[in-house]
Write a structure and sequence with these properties.
Blueprint: H1 13-55, H2 61-66, H3 86-103, E1 111-117, E2 121-136, E3 141-153
Antiparallel strand pairs: 1-2, 2-3
Helix pairs in contact: 1-3
Length: 157
């Protein structure tokens, strides 16, 4: 009895498996790099929010205790905010960012691009460079920079 299949079909599964393997490796490469960048971004946002929340505790005592009127002072009571001492808040924010960067899992330092305070709201813009877990020399992609902007305000309860 002879085999009825033509001889040209032998071994045709090997190239298909090779192509699937390459596709799987590329997908793993992309997913790992995107996940790493996302996790680093979330960590940077959390660190910045934490530092800004600590900085909002710097009370402008003169405006708070003596109720020096501000343009928003006579507005609706649910929109009244606790006055923040901008100079002390900037110092506190810088210290918190420096101390939180020391305990962070990332080894790269956080760079403060901007800090803004209007006496009621704090806003900060920070960045951190991330070394990707898988770099592809062909595309010359080895790092990623996360830039986030976070704002907080402190309201009367």
């Amino acid at each position: 009895m002879k085999n009825s299949q033509p001889h040209g079909e032998e071994g045709s599964i090997t190239p298909l498996i090779s192509i699937y393997f390459i596709v799987v490796v590329i997908v793993i490469f992309i997913v790992a790099n995107v996940a790493s960048a996302y996790i680093s971004r979330r960590e940077l946002i959390n660190l910045t929010e934490s530092a800004l929340a600590q900085a909002t505790h710097e009370l402008d005592e003169m405006r708070y205790y003596y109720q020096i009127p501000t343009p928003n002072h006579f507005g609706p009571s649910n929109d009244r905010r606790v006055p923040i001492d901008c100079r002390d808040a900037a110092i506190s924010f810088t210290k918190e960012i420096a101390s939180s960067a020391e305990f962070s899992e990332e080894s790269n330092e956080i760079v403060v691009l901007g800090f803004d305070c209007d006496g009621r709201t704090l806003r900060a813009r920070v960045e951190r460079a991330l070394l990707l877990p898988f770099s592809l020399p062909v595309l010359s992609i080895s790092h990623f920079t996360n830039v986030v902007e976070v704002a907080v305000t402190s309201r009367y309860l």
